[in-house]
Amino acid sequence: MSDGDERGTSERPSEQTAAVSEHHAEHEVTPQEHEANVETVEAVVRRQMAKSLGGRRGMLEAGLPGIAFTLVWLILQNLQASLIAGCAVAAVALALRLVQRSTVQYVANAIVGIAIGWGVVHIARGMGGSQQDQALAFFLPGIIITGVYTLAMIVSCLARWPVIGFMVGSVAGDPMAWHEDDQVVTLCTRLTWLFLAPGGILVLLEGPVWLLGWTGAMSVNAAVLILGIVRMGLGWPLRIAGWGAMVWLLARNATPVQQPAAD
């Protein structure tokens, strides 16, 4: 072998090493890129909240039928017209979803709520209740459902198994692993308290008013008026405030999601 061949052979490994080093340098992950690729509890919760609430459109579709019912009742004092108004708003939202071939989940939630309310109204009518009594009955399912899920979330927080933690677990791959990290448990507990607060406040305000109206200690018309004002005038501001507080808390933290250890 000639000296030229020997020099060429000895230079090739060095050239290859340099090329590999250059390749690695070009693809080296910076700490910022690594941090951006790490799934965080905050990102998971934001995504799950957006999915469960449906964004602005989903929240409007879920809330507008009930608002339409309340507004028409307060203006006309006519139960049939109020139910038609609520159903009409839900039907328009459903038709738009079907035309766009998008999910009808949030419209369906509103329709189910109206159906449950109509069932309670029908029971009140069968018991000989007046239109005012029937309108008061329409508010009962919402108060009960909100009270039940609020109580369940309170218990989950006190037991240190907050509901929002299970959202994290469903994404991490192990539904229980998140509970081993005290920092994650604390964050999820705070988020759950903020999530349940609006509903809890509404139940504390609406429940006594409903009972006063149903027992006759307060005029039924006055009770329906107060319930409508509380639900429309206070319900949405409370929810927006609660969600805003959650967004603020989620924006200031970056708690990594712990993936289950490989066997």
Report on the architecture of this protein.
By secondary structure, the chain is mostly helical. It has one domain. It is 81% helix and 0% strand. The chain has eleven helices and no strands. Residues 16-38 have low confidence and may be disordered.
Q: What structural class should be given to the helix and strand makeup?
A: mainly alpha
Number of domains: 1
Per the principal axes of the C-alpha atoms, what is the gross shape? globular
Total number of strands: 0
| Helix fraction bin | over 70%
Radius of gyration: 28 Å
How many helix segments? Answer: 11
Quote the distance from N terminus to C terminus.
53 Å
- Uncertain ranges: 16-38
Beta-strand percentage range: under 5%
Nearest-integer average pLDDT: 76
The biggest beta sheet is recorded as: none
- Topology as H/E string? HHHHHHHHHHH
